[in-house]
């Protein structure tokens, strides 16, 4: 295992638990205690964790991994959700997108889509986003016209936040908003970890005729710090597994259509 892979796994572990001991890292990664200690020291030097006696802890409550350090948790689920989102987008559509790994995969699916291929060198869809990584990746796709909101970027997510997001969206009208979330419940609706990102996502949703939340099953039934919108404001949830009966009833009551994405089928090599 390469060092960067180890660092990613250690960060995920600290994000989940809040703190870890050197022995925990050694056992989880199958490395020596000396290697585990060096990895924790490296992360502390990068100011991603706080070094403690015998281990390390997250920088604070509500700790959020920077996007570039996130490993592909639920990777197959995200790919399946991305394909289902792509199937919802019609040629000529204007699509609002916030940031995050699931929505990034959806943007990649749109860029690769043969159904949404460029005609005569002209873009077939427009993506309006506050996510710099999505804008950068999609800018090379001739079938996509990219519009980036104003705002100040967060290092953790590459998302633009602040009053310039709302100001740049004020005169837009979007066909569909595709939103990634950190949590989704009937009681609190769609939520995320950072209030600035919640505000930006809320403004994207406000100028869209249809709001789609793209979230794998690990996000369903949990709520995080900042609300994006109430459940009633969501039109469609695209996820990777059927909801529990109680949640299904709650989402039906809120008139939220639940789309369960077909699983990604691995292609075997011959």
What does this structure look like?
This protein has 270 residues and is of the alpha/beta class. It has two domains: 3-63, Orthogonal Bundle (Arc Repressor Mutant, subunit A), CATH 1.10.10; 75-260, Rossmann fold. Helices cover 36% and strands 20% of the residues. The chain has nine helices and 15 strands. The chain has helices at residues 3-17, 22-29, 33-45, 75-88, 101-112, 132-138, 163-169, 195-206, 245-253; strands at 19-21, 50-52, 55-57, 94-97, 125-129, 144-148, 152-153, 160-161, 176-180, 183-185, 189-192, 211-214, 226-229, 236-239, 257-260. The strands form four sheets. The chain has a seven-stranded parallel beta sheet with strand order 6-5-4-9-12-14-15, sandwiched between helices. A three-stranded antiparallel beta sheet has the order 1-3-2. Helix 4 (75-88) packs across helix 5. The longest helix has 15 residues, at 3-17. The protein is globular and about 55 Å long. Residues 266-270 have low confidence and may be disordered.
List keywords for this structure.
single chain, 20% strand, three-stranded antiparallel β-sheet, alpha/beta, 2 domains
Q: Architecture of the largest domain, CATH level 2? A: 3-Layer(aba) Sandwich
Query: What is the CA-atom radius of gyration, in angstroms?
Result: 20 Å
Strand order of the biggest β-sheet:
6-5-4-9-12-14-15
Largest beta sheet, briefly? 7 strands, parallel
Helix-residue proportion = 25-40%
Number of helices: 9
Instruction: Outline the low-pLDDT stretches.
Output: 266-270
> What is the typical, i.e. mean, pLDDT?
91
Domain count, please report it. Answer: 2
Organism: Microbacterium jejuense
Domain HTH deoR-type: 3-58
Protein name: DeoR/GlpR transcriptional regulator
InterPro entries: Carb_Metab_HTH_regulators (IPR050313), DeoR-like_C (IPR014036), DeoR_HTH (IPR001034), NagB/RpiA_transferase-like (IPR037171), Tscrpt_reg_HTH_DeoR_CS (IPR018356), WH-like_DNA-bd_sf (IPR036388), WH_DNA-bd_sf (IPR036390)
């Amino acid at each position: 295992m390469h060092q960067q892979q180890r660092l990613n796994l250690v960060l995920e572990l600290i994000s989940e638990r809040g703190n870890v001991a050197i022995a925990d890292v050694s056992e989880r990664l199958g490395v020596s205690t000396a290697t585990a200690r060096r990895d924790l020291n490296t992360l502390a030097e990068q100011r991603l964790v706080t070094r403690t006696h015998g281990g390390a802890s997250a920088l604070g409550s509500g700790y959020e991994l920077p996007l570039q350090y996130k490993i592909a948790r639920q990777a197959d689920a995200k790919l399946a959700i991305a394909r289902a989102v792509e199937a919802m987008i019609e040629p000529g559509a204007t699509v609002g997108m916030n940031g995050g790994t699931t929505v990034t995969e959806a943007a990649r699916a749109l860029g690769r889509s043969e159904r949404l291929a460029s005609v005569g060198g002209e873009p077939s869809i427009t993506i309006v986003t506050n996510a710099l990584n999505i804008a950068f990746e999609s800018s090379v796709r001739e079938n996509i016209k990219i519009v980036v909101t104003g705002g100040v970027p967060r290092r953790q997510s590459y998302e633009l936040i602040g009053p310039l997001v709302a100001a740049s969206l004020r005169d837009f009208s979007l066909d569909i908003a595709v939103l990634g979330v950190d949590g989704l419940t009937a009681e609190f609706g769609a939520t995320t970890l950072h209030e600035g990102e919640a505000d930006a996502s809320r403004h994207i949703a406000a100028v869209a005729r249809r709001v789609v939340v793209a979230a794998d099953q690990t996000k369903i039934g949990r709520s995080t710090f900042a609300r994006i919108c109430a459940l009633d404001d969501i039109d469609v949830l695209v996820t990777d597994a059927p909801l529990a009966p109680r949640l299904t009833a709650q989402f039906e009551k809120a008139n939220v259509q639940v789309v369960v994405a077909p699983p990604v089928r691995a292609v075997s090599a011959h």
